[in-house]
Amino acid sequence: MRFNKAKCRVLHLSRGNPRFQYRLGGDMIKSSPAEMDLGVLVAWRWTGGTGLGATGFIHLLVDEKLDMSRQCALAAQKANHILGCIQRSVASRSREVILPLYSALVRPHLEYCVQLWSPQHKKDMELLERGVTEGYNGTIFAYGQTGSGKSFTMQGIVDPSTQKGIIPRAFEHIFESVQCAENAKFLVRASYLEIYNEDIRDLLGADTKQKLELKEHPEKGVYVKGLSLHTVHSVVQCERIMETGWRNRAVGYTLMNKDSSRSHSIFTVNMEIYTVDERGQDHLRAAKLNLVDLAGSERQSKTGATGERLKEATKINLSLSALGNVISALVDGRCKHIPYRDSKLTRLLQDSLGGNTKTLMVACLSPADNNYDESLSTLRYANRAKNIKNKPCINEDPKDALLREYQEEIKKLKAILAEQMSTNILS
Fold it and tell me: What PROSITE patterns would the database entry show (predicted)?
């Protein structure tokens, strides 16, 4: 299938006489002084095969405060961007990429998961975060190329409050649930680590450069030996800890991002829930929420990384590749061996991928058309990840879990006994 022709025409929808003219792709753009909506008419044609052709009218949002001359100039820039996306899609010989692009742009409906009013935030983020107070493990991780907004999505900014990221919002949801809970006591502790050049470092420790070791416990699973835990009683305390750890993270300058994260970071909220049942017996549940900001995948040709930055990028890409291999193995279903041990990152996220954790992946994309290949790769990554099947369950104290198992067994035996007795009476 071969791309034959595409043209992009910007139209001004008004009845006034044309006053301004701009040229785009060989077509003249005309406009009137009136402040009306601007739109772009996009047409493309395929040859070879079905000979499919398609057109679409795409509304462009332009600042009404500007005069029409400037509005048309901005519209022309946006139209060029759209045309570039289509041409890149054609170059990749993927009709499936073009059609969603066209249909999505006709009636944009974009919701940001970090905005309080968005359906995604209410449906996914908030429910997952509040589930930790019930005893479920949770993980939220941001994935995407460098400079696509992962750190901003997770961290955000304090002022204005509407720009807070996922991590500070999680603090608010957790402590709201704690305050509303009845007949329960909570112990909340926080930790913050980073994986830099495949070395684990405590961002809240006395020596942030000290390398920590991974260990495995038969009941607790994988954990970091010597990682500091800090008891917190409020959202404010959590935010202070987050800011302290953030200042200790490894960042560096690249051509893609002047403050590029050079490490993966994991902020973990550990929670113990003590409850008393109707018979006065104590019960203990434990849960944790992992909030993960992954370093961005990089191409040396774009970032201009050399020396230490290039070494960092190599380690980052290797660990992200290991994460991709784990996801692929889990989705495949035929692999008996899941390569969790290929990197520190995948070992720490072992419970989050195919384990007992409620996991949510945030795919961060760059709007720039020159990042088309990386954006498509991120979407494919996310498409594979969504097919992983976890088995979330409440983390009970082993004694409580065993007791509940015995109680359920006794209940079943009583039901069987009652059924046999009723059968004997009837006979």
Answer: KINESIN_MOTOR_1, KINESIN_MOTOR_2
Q: How far apart are CA 167 and CA 129, in angstroms?
A: 10
Binding residue per annotation — 344? no
What pLDDT, in 10s, does the model give residues 79-118? Answer: 666 566 555 555 544 444 434 333 333 333 334 444 555 6
Write out the residue limits of the CATH 3.40.850.10 domain(s) in the chain. Answer: 119-396
User: Does the pTM of the predicted model rise above 0.85?
Assistant: no
CB count in 10 Å sphere of residue 47: 13
Would you say 254 and 298 are in contact if contact means Cβ atoms under 8 Å apart?
yes
Our CA angle for 159, 264, 393, nearest 5°, is: 90
Q: 151 a known binding residue?
A: yes
Cα gap 310→300, rounded to integer Å? 7
148 annotated ligand-binding residue: yes
Q: What is the pLDDT of residues 309-339, one digit of tens each?
A: 677 777 887 888 899 899 988 988 777 788 9
> What is the rounded CA–CA span in Å between residue 169 and residue 269?
13
pLDDT at 14: 34
When mean pLDDT is compared across 4-8, 175-179, 343-347, the lowest value belongs to: 4-8
Distance, CA of 354 to CA of 339 (rounded, Å) = 12
CB 274 within 8 A of CB 184: yes
Is 131 annotated to bind a ligand? Reply is no
Residue 171 has pLDDT above 70, yes or no: yes
343 appears as a binding residue in the annotation = no
At the top level of CATH, the class of 119-396 is alpha beta
User: How is the chain split among helix, strand and coil, in percent rounded to 5?
Assistant: 40, 30, 30
Q: What residues contact 248, with CB distance under 8 A and at least 6 apart?
A: 194, 203, 204, 208
| pLDDT at residue 319, rounded to an integer | 86
How many angstroms separate the CA atoms of 298 and 57, rounded?
A: 35
For residue 98, give Cα distances in angstroms to 91, 111, 173, 357: 11, 21, 39, 36
205 is in an annotated binding site: no
Nearest to 296 by CA among 381, 410, 407: 381
**Residue 91 phi, psi (nearest 5):** -60, -30
Is 228 annotated as ligand-binding? no
Q: Is 354 annotated as a binding residue?
A: no
